Queue: 2 jobs
Job 1
Amino acid sequence: MKKTILTSVVLCMVLVSVAQNPIIKHIFTADPSPIVYKDTLFLYTGHDTASVTATNYKMPDWHVFSTTDMVNWKDHGALLSPATFSWATGDAYAAQCIERNGKFYWFVSTFHKKDSNSNGGAAIGVAVSDRPTGPFKDAIGKALITNEMTKDKPHAWDDIDPTVFIDDDKQAYLYWGNGSCKWVKLKENMIETEGPITVTEVKNFIEGPWLYKRKGLYYLVYAGRGTKPEMIEYATSNSPTGPWNYQGIIQENVPNSFTTHPGIIDYKGKSYFFYHNGSLPTGGSYRRSVCVDYMYYNADGTIQKIIQTVEGVKPVSK
Ligand code: FUB
C-alpha cells in the first residue's frame, strides 16, 4: 500500500515537472512578447481577468515575467496599465517592448478617450523606462497612433497589436492592425512616426503581427483566418516594407481559445515560439494562458510547423 502511494506521488511530481505549458499558471495571461536583455529573457504579456461566463475581454494591465533557464519564471507584477496614459481608457490589448540605446519602449494597444485628439476607438501608445522592469511612464503624453490616422477599415479597433523592429541600418518600423496590416517608420527617438502610414497586402492577415529578420530575410508572422479560430501564418520579404510573400500556416488552432498570438525569440542558441491558449482549468477565449514551444527553420529559411506541447521546452543552463 505504502509503495503504491509513494509511486503515485513520484508520478505526480514527474508529470507536474514535465508539464511546463502554460508557463504562467497563477494568473491568466495573453499576447506574449519576449525580448532578451543582458542574458535574461523578459516576457511582456497581457492579463485576462474576465469571469468564466464573460463574452468579452477584461484586461486591466500588462505584466512582465523573466527567466534565465526557460522553465523558472519570475513575475515582476503588473508594471503598466492603461491608467498610465492620461488619454487612454479600456482594456490592455497586445503590446511589445523593445530596447534602444539603453531605454525600453513598451508599445501598447488600448483605447482612446473621446477628447480633442480622438473620437475614441483603439489606439497605440508608448511607455518608456530605463530598465526592462520599469518604472514605465507615458513617453509622449498622447497616443502615437489614433483611430483617425487610418481610414481603410471602418471598425474602431483596427489600430491594435503593435510590433516594432529595428533593422541593421537602425531604421525602426512599427507594424500593427486588425483586419488589415499597416506600417510606418519610427524616428530614432522611437516616439514619433516618420513618413506616411502604409496599408500593406498580407494574405489572410487578421491581427497580432510579429516582425523580425533572420539571415537577411524579413519575417511577418501573424494571426490569420479569423473567421474560424485563429491560426498563425507567415510571410517573408527581402525588405522590411514588403511586398510580403505568403508562406503558409505554422500553427494550427490552439486548445480552447478563439485567438492566438505569436511572440518569437532566439535565446541561448534555440528559437522559441510563444503563444497563448485556453488550456488552464476554467480557461477559455477570455481567460487565456501563455505557452512556449520550440521553433525550427528549414535550410531555405522556411519555418516548420509548430508542435504544440504540454511539456513545453527543456531547461537551458543559467
Ligand atoms: O488580447 C486582446 C486581443 O486579442 C489582442 O490584441 C489580439 O491580438 C488578440 O490576442
Job 2
Amino acid sequence: MRTYLVTGGAGFIGSNYIHYMFRKYGDAIRIINVDALTYAGNLENLKDIEERDNYTFVKADIRDREAIEKIFAENDIDRVVHFAAESHVDRSIVNPEIFVETNVLGTLVMLNAAKKAWELPDGTFKADKKFLHVSTDEVYGSLEEGDTYFYETTPIDPHSPYSASKASSDMLVKAYWDTYRFPMNITNCSNNYGPFQFPEKLIPLIINNALQGKKLPVYGDGKNVRDWLYVDDHAKAIDMVQENGRLGERYNIGGHNEKQNIEIINIILETLQEMLPDEDPRKKLVSKDLITYVTDRKGHDRRYAIAPDKIKEEIGWYPETMFKDGIRLTIQWFFEHEDWMKNVTSGDYQKYYEEMYKNK
Ligand code: NAD
Ligand code: DAU
C-alpha cells in the first residue's frame, strides 16, 4: 500500500486534498498528515475521516528536524505532498520572519529528511519515491491588463514577503533536482476557493461578512485580477502531476478564470441573493451598500493569470469546475457549515485537537 506524507493537511487545500485522495483511492492508500496546527490548521476539517484505519494525524512542526526524520524512520514513505506554509500575503507584510522560517527553512527540513530516507549508497534514490512541492503563481510577480500569461518559463519575480519565501522554497526544491536528481515536482497554482477556506481570504471573508451585514473591504480600486480555481480541481491536478508528471519539472495550474476582485464580490452578493430563501433574515442584510473601498495592500500585485498549457498537453489535466458552479458549491457549503465558521471566528476550533486527541 502506498504511503503519503502530507504536510499542512489541516489547512484549506491540504484538507480538501486528503478528502479528494480518500474519495479516489479509498483503502488503497495510507495518509500521514503532519501539521503544526497554527491559526490556519483546523482538525475539524478532517473530522469525518479521522477514524479511518489508513489515516494518521501527527502534530509536528516542519521546522523540527528530529520530529520529521522520526516520521520518515518509522514509516516507509512513498509520496510527500508538501502544503505546509504560512499562506496569507497580508500577514507576510506585517510579520515576514515566520514566512522565511516556515516556508524556506521548513521546506529545507522536508527535503533533507526525504533525501536521507530515500537516498541509496550510490547517490541514486529508491524506486518510485516522489516529493511534490505545492507552490503558487505569485512567484512570477505581477502582470498588467493586456500582458501575456505566466508560463513555467516566466522569470521568477516575487514582490511580497510571502511570494519571496515561496519562490525561495521553489528554488531549493529545484536545486535538489539539479544537484542530486532528488525525485521532485513543483506545482504553481492560482487562487483557490472552496470549502474549509479560512475567512481571512477574499472569498470566505466576503461570504461571511455579507451574511452578517458587515462591511466588505475592497483594497484599492478593486480592479486587481486573480485567476480563481475550485479547490478540488487543484487536488486532482496535484495527484495527476505526482503520478504522471515528468520528474524534475514544474507545472502551472490555473482556472482559465480571471476576474477583478470587485467582480468576485458582486457575483457573491448576487449568488447569495439567489440562493437565500425569502424568509431567511440574512437575505435583507446582503447588499451592495456593504462594499467599502479601503487603503490598498502594500505592493499589491495587479494581475495573476496562469497558462496551464503544459499540464494539459503532457498530463491531460484541465479545470473542470466553472466559476458559476464552484461559487454555488462553496456558498452552499458555508450555509451547511455555519458551526465551522462560528468555531473559526470565535477561536473554538483550536480546542478541537485537545478534545479529540487527548486519549489517543
Ligand atoms: P493554509 O494557510 O490554509 O494552511 C496551511 C497549513 O499549514 C495549516 O494547516 C497550518 O497549520 C500548517 N502549517 C503552517 N506552518 C506549519 C509548520 N511550521 N509546520 C507544520 N504545519 C504548518 O494554506 P492553504 O491556502 O491551504 O495553502 C496550502 C499551500 O498551497 C501553501 O503552500 C500555499 O503557498 C499554496 N497555495 C495556496 C493557494 C491558495 O489560493 N490558497 C494557491 C496556490 C498555492
Ligand atoms: O495566487 C495564489 C495565492 O492566492 C496563494 O499563493 C496565497 O496563499 C493565497 O492567499 C492567495 O493570495 P491573494 O493575496 O491573491 O489572496 P487574498 O484572498 O488575500 O486576496 C485576493 C485579492 O483580494 C487580492 O487582490 C487582495 C484582495 N482583497 C483581499 C482581502 C482579504 C481585498 O480586496 N479585500 C480583502 O479583504
